[in-house]
Specification:
With 104 residues, the protein is an alpha/beta fold. It has one domain. The chain is built from three helices and three strands, in the order βαβαβα. It has a three-stranded parallel β-sheet with strand order 1-2-3, with helices on one face.
């Protein structure tokens, strides 16, 4: 059985989470074709690229909101729709990028 494509999504700054993800990906690299989605180039991109891990750069939105007031609930749906729209664009971009590269 061939390797499967696995997309890892992170927006963590360079630190423990990024190093941990990098180590996990390297330990699984004989079983999967790893691809990391990052919102921009920077130190985290450099870390993954230096380990030979393929990266795709495209902005995306996390749907994390503080839920402490009525204002949150009134603004939640428009933010959800906006985030869905931008993330749908990101998903289409990533899928085309992976398909055009032969899947890994």
């Amino acid at each position: 059985m061939g390797k499967i494509n696995v997309l890892y999504i992170t927006q963590a700054p360079l630190g423990g989470a990024a190093f941990s993800l990098c180590n996990m990906i390297r330990s699984l690299s004989d079983k999967v074709n790893p691809v990391v989605l990052l919102p921009d180039k920077g130190e985290v991109y450099d870390l993954f690229a230096s380990c030979g891990i393929r990266c795709i750069i495209h902005p995306f939105r996390c749907n994390i909101r503080e839920k402490s007031s009525l204002n949150h609930y009134l603004r939640y749906v428009p933010h959800l729709v906006r985030d869905w729209y931008y993330n749908r664009i990101c998903i289409n971009y990533v899928c085309k990028n992976i398909e055009n590269s032969g899947g890994g």
